[in-house]
Amino acid sequence: MTISIPIPIPKDEDYVYPVSHLDLCKPLISTTITHPAIIIPAKLTSSIRADLKKILMNRPKMRDIYALSPEVAHSDASIDPKTERKVVLTNSNSEYPGEKIFQHPAIEKLFNDTNQDLATVRKSSHDVVIGYDHFTVEEVLSKLLPKEHFTEIPSSFEVIGHLAHITLREEYNPYKYIIGRAILDKNKGIQVVVNKTGTIQNEFRTFPMEILADDRKPRKETSEKKKDGIDLNLLVEVKEDGCKFQLDFEKVYWNSRLQFEHRRIVHTIAGKERPTNMKKRELKKAAKDKDSDQDMKESSSSSQEKIIVADACAGIGPFAVPLTSQFDHVEVYANDLNPESYKYLEINSKLNKCNHGKKVALHTYNMDGRYFLRKLDEDGIKYDHVLMNLPAIAPEFLNVFRGWKGDYNHRPMVHVHCFAAKVGGEEEAVKRCGRNLGCELDMDKDEVYVHEVRNVSPKKNMYCVSFRLPEGVKEVEQVQEFGAIVSNENDDEDEEPPSKKLKA
Ligand SMILES: C[S@@+](CC[C@H](N)C(=O)[O-])C[C@H]1O[C@@H](n2cnc3c(N)ncnc32)[C@H](O)[C@@H]1O
Q: Residue 356 pLDDT > 60, yes or no?
């Protein structure tokens, strides 16, 4: 097979270039670029480099100073290897491009200096071979993808721990392993690149994916790669808001773009002031002195009333874990229907010491969110806040509150996430909540507040509607059994990631 770049669209429409094809293409994308340079006395190298700092060649993985190595000697026989060095200058200074750099004031000053040591300073040049290793991912893909077919470079991705997640459009399919490998090679810290191969289709909000590039070696034998049915490469650890979260990206829902919403809700519920490390240390010391875990808890929460939260669709715990690990006055009842999410919720609870010593602040459940809320009511748990973050159908879950049997002097704040239109979406979302509660929400009396969470697609936003449970639900007939809710909206939650224009 003859290798050429750009890599042609394959005749067989199902053909996918193997990643080895990238290796064959690498020599073809190398180019030699000549940079201006100067020869200087070796003993003055550091002071001259400091003076020319702003106009030195600046290319990743390349030095700007050369001793007389064999290859330099070949290209410039006038250098005395023992006493001289070559300093390579930028060729892309906006005011002094290319050879004009010799007219730069810093260079002219050097040439005009009367110091005898500088008498031998002279102009030179240096050939730089720029290859795959020195290009950015955009530059590599711009050279490899045929411009007549593609106008954009699919180089944008989301990072989840050591994993990069991309959503490639179908036309990039023949190049998917090459694109994955280029992203992996060019981004430190990334060890696996996965491609979303379909839309969110199930109630657990997970989506099908494939691995495009993988640099993570299984710890022992390949048999370890699929431990407990989990591909270890998709097991990641992420940090958010001072907490660590473990998750299996293939099996549970996680969206790093929700980090600000997670933090907003945590602040809304618990207040902004977190115990700083300093305060924590002081509290720990006090607790130790009094030899009681309980004292510590009381001293930290004495000024704040206890807050109870019911998180009906908690996922792996991005609300519940910070609320209970960082605030001593918050207790959370957290639930998720997905057994895998429940598993990681428990793991993350332990990892972040949500329940510690005598403190039991995070209670975990694995059931349908509506039956979970009903159970809390039946068990007499008085919650101050309810979280329902399941945007496609959460407003429909509100029928659980019809005929609510709780304490109407202590009506909880409910925070419901949903998708709605960009234009008029706030109003539509509030009405949808009212319809499912079985009574209208009063904007003032029920303290209704709609927050725009994020842009989802050209016509759709994600919102969070917060309100105090309206007294009107008391008069509505209770729902006894909750069936499956089928969402008729496009369930693909995320818009396509932005792409960059293909470079000429
Ligand atoms: C959009 S995710 C949000 C998870 C988490 N709150 C977050 O911010 O990452 C929705 C979660 O609801 C869970 N879920 C789906 N149907 C459910 C149900 N009927 N009852 C409880 N949880 C449900 C899914 O498994 C998923 O973890």
A: yes
Is residue 76 one of the residues assigned to a domain? yes
**Which of 381, 377, 394 lies closest to 478 in space, CA to CA?**
377
Probe residue for ligand 1, chosen from 253, 260, 332 as the CB with the greatest number of ligand atoms within 8 Å: 253
Predicted confidence at residue 236, as pLDDT, reads 94
Long-range contacts of 261-264 (CB under 8 A, 24+ apart): 261/417, 261/453, 261/454, 261/464, 262/318, 262/319, 262/322, 263/322, 264/451
Q: Which helix (H) or strand (E) holds 416?
A: strand 413-421
Both 194 and 279 in a single domain? Answer: no
Same domain? 233 vs 326: no
Q: Taking a C-beta distance cutoff of 8 angstroms, is the pair 246, 237 a contact? A: yes
Q: Residue 106 belongs to a domain with what CATH number?
A: 3.30.70
If one counts the domains in the chain, the total is 3
Residue 250 lies in a domain: no
Q: Which residue has the tokens 């020599």?
A: 27
Are residues 119 and 150 both part of a single domain? no
Domain carrying residue 69: 31-130
CA of 336 to the centre of ligand 1 (A): 6
Bridge partners for 452 per DSSP: 463
Q: pLDDT tens-digit profile of 46-64?
A: 999 999 999 999 988 889 9
Domain match, 261 and 205 both? no
pLDDT in tens, 403-419: 999 999 999 999 999 99
- Centre of ligand 1 to C-alpha 395, Å, is 13
pLDDT higher than 50, residue 299? no
pLDDT at 71: 61
Ranges of H-type helices in 118-175: 137-144
453 CA distance to ligand 1 middle (Å): 17
Would you give the distance in Å from CA 51 to the centre of its chain?
40
Secondary structure (DSSP) of 198-263: S---STT----EEEEEE-PPPSSSGGGGEETTEEGGGEEEEEETTEEEEEETTTS---GGGHHHHH
Quick one: which atom of ligand 1 is closest to the CA of 336?
22
Same domain for 421 and 272, yes or no, is yes
Do residues 60 and 99 both lie within one domain?
yes
- Longest C-alpha distance within the chain, in Å? 99
Same domain, 368 and 301: yes
Cβ of 204 closer than 6 Å to ligand 1, yes or no, is yes
